[in-house]
Each structure stands twice: as structure tokens, then as C-alpha cells.
Amino acid sequence: MNKKDYYEVLGVDKSASEAEIKSAFRKLAKKYHPDNKETGDEEKFKEIGEAYAVLSDENKRRQYDQFGSAAFDGSAGAGYSGFDPGDIDLNDILRSVFGDVGGFSSFGGGFSDFFDGGRASNSTRPQKGRDTLVRLDLTFEEAAFGVDKDIELTLNDTCSNCNGKGGFDESTCSYCHGSGYVVTEQRSLFGVVQSRGVCPKCHGKGKSYKTICKVCNGTGQEKKKKTISIHIPEGVNTGHQLRISGKGEAGINGGSNGDIYFEIHVKESKLYIRDEEDLTIILPITITDAILGAKKEVPTIYGNVVMEVKPGTQNGTKYKLKGKGLKVPNSLRKGDEYVVINVMIPNKITREQKTLLESLAKTDLETNQEFKDFQKNL
């Protein structure tokens, strides 16, 4: 006795419209069709096909709604003669729901085209070559000012011996008659099931060769060393990618070459701390410079500049040098450079220096109002 709930199988309500039932079947058929390598499930596919065969037919659905599981064991009475799953033709169902797919409409045949973006699965069509990702290490200076580099890579390229054909004395494959694929048939519960696969003799090329190329061993490609010239713009940072179009690995069946992606990795500077296009530098000064003020020569990536340190500058004070940072790649805008003051405390002082500092400390205590206020609050 078959006690399946067909509405539950398709995931629809009993009040679902014909369009909703059809939509549910389309979605599940794509998911569970055996040609779907990720989620294909032949038993599940047959089950949803059986459910759709009943619920999409007005008479069968009405009788199923009336008799339920009794419709399958002959106990429904004279009003219903029963339903035999063996009568289902999944090929007819697929044709009615999807139409012809890539010239095929049979269960196990061209339906697999749905899992290739809707295109016919044909290994003889031109295919773009694989893209290549290359790590490119740069010094801080190269990244800051840009640089031209010649990079040597070993890539799969069209075989120079056979011009990418894979062999010599070409002829049409006698096994697949030039189509590149073969169709096999197998009987099942739902009738004859057709499956299409790549021709095992010509591996999908549709052609065979009397003599196989010894250089590429029939692949049509060989590894070659190539020198790729690349311009790195000013201001690139780690993680930045540059794409060189059409210089990657050779395509298949006359397809275009792949692309090369250079991923930038920039070595840290010993002098600057980088934050995108902004730079920070730590500038050490003496206590007297901090107290009295001074003019200091500060390095930037564009050369040294003279910066005024104001009297009374505190440790950690930050000055900004506008436009002295890195250039934003492919832009005219530049970042800034920040100068952080680091007041250096000497480890050792002379007796004379000690005397002067003690005198300064005494004067400081007498004149420093902030310190006096602090003392009052103790």
C-alpha cells in the first residue's frame, strides 16, 4: 500500500494551485535530478515525479484527494481503478515542464544542462584558460612610488609542435561520429532512461589522430616560461590586486587565454607606520627642545622638511604634515604624514646638569599653577 502524502513530497498545501505545484516540481526536479552532482538523488527524483504526475492531473488529483492512500490498493471502489506508478513516463513530465533542454528532454539526458548554467554540456566548445594568481612582494619604497617589473612565470601554453591539436593526421572520431559525446540507454521503472557522457575514445574532442603529439602527449598544451611586464602604480598596499588580461594559461578548443592576477604584499617600513595612505613617524626630541621649542628636520618620503616644535610641547603631541603621505593608487590625492613627539629622558646626567635641573625644578614648583592646584587637592 502506498501511503505517501504527495502534497508533503512537493512541499505544497492541499489548496495549492496548478502553477504552485508546477513551480514546486521544477525546483525539486533541478535539485534531485541524478545529473545534479551536488544534490542529485534518483529515488527522491522518482518520488517527486510520481507526486507531480498525480497532482498535476485534474482527475487523478481529485480522486487522490477523495480516496487518499486507498487509491493505490484497489479499495477505493468502483469510482477509481487505482494508480500504477509504473505508468509514469518521466520523459513526458520533463518535456511538459521544462521543454526540450539543449536538444534533449529525456530523464538522464540533456537535463544536466540546467546544472551548467543552461548551456549544453559540450566539451568541444571553446573554453577560457585558467586564471593564475601570483604573489608579488614589494619593498615599501616600490609600493610608495610605483615600479615596473618583469615577472617570469611558467604557464600552460598552446603546444608549439601540434598547434594545440594534440596530434597529427586528424579524422572524425568513429565512436561518437564527431559529436564529442555518446548516449547510452538503460531500462528502469520509468521506461528507457538515456544518459549522455563524454566520448571515452576522443575525450570529447570529436576528433581522433593517427599520431599523438609527443610534446604535449595529446593535451594540446605544454608548459612554457613567459616574461610578464607589469606596472605597479604608486601607493599600492598589501592585498591590492592587479589583473593582466589574456596573459594567463591557454584556452581549450580555441578559447581565449586566462588572466593573471598579481596580489601585492608590501614589506613594512623601518621608519614609517602606515595606515592606508597616511604615514606616522616617531620624532625623538630632548627635554630642552620640548620646553624651549625648536626647529627639527623631519624625514618624509619626498625628502626632509623643517618642522617647528612649539615651546612647551608635551610627550605624545602629534603634528600633521599635509600631503606628505602616500598617493592613493590611480588618483591625484595624497595622504598626510603625522609626526608624534617622543620626549627623550636621559639615563645619565652630569653634576652640572643635575644642579641646573634642581634649580629648574624649584622654580617650576613656584610658578606652575597646575601643580599648585594639584597639591591643594591632596
Q: Which properties best describe this structure?
A:
378 residues; alpha+beta; four-stranded mixed β-sheet; three-stranded mixed β-sheet; 9 helices; 15 strands; elongated
Give the H and E element order.
Answer: HHHHHEHEEEEEEEEEEHEEEEHH
What is the strand tally? 15
The description of the largest β-sheet is: 4 strands, mixed
Q: How far is it from the N-terminal to the C-terminal residue, by CA?
A: 94 Å
The stretches of 5 or more residues where confidence is low (pLDDT under 50) are 100-110, 112-122
Give the CA-based shape: elongated
Strand content: 25-35%
Q: Determine the number of helices (DSSP H or I, runs of at least 4 residues).
A: 9
Written description of the protein model:
The structure is a single chain. By secondary structure, the chain is of the alpha+beta class. Helices cover 24% and strands 27% of the residues. The chain has helices at 6-10, 18-32, 42-55, 58-67, 90-98, 140-145, 287-292, 351-367, 369-376, and strands at residues 132-138, 147-158, 167-172, 181-188, 191-198, 207-212, 221-232, 241-244, 260-266, 273-275, 278-285, 294-298, 305-309, 318-321, 337-343. The strands form six sheets. Strands 10-11-15-14 form a four-stranded mixed β-sheet. A three-stranded mixed β-sheet has the order 1-9-8.
Helix/strand layout:
Layout: H1 6-10, H2 18-32, H3 42-55, H4 58-67, H5 90-98, E1 132-138, H6 140-145, E2 147-158, E3 167-172, E4 181-188, E5 191-198, E6 207-212, E7 221-232, E8 241-244, E9 260-266, E10 273-275, E11 278-285, H7 287-292, E12 294-298, E13 305-309, E14 318-321, E15 337-343, H8 351-367, H9 369-376
Parallel strand pairs: 1-9, 11-15
Antiparallel strand pairs: 2-7, 3-6, 4-5, 8-9, 10-11, 12-13, 14-15
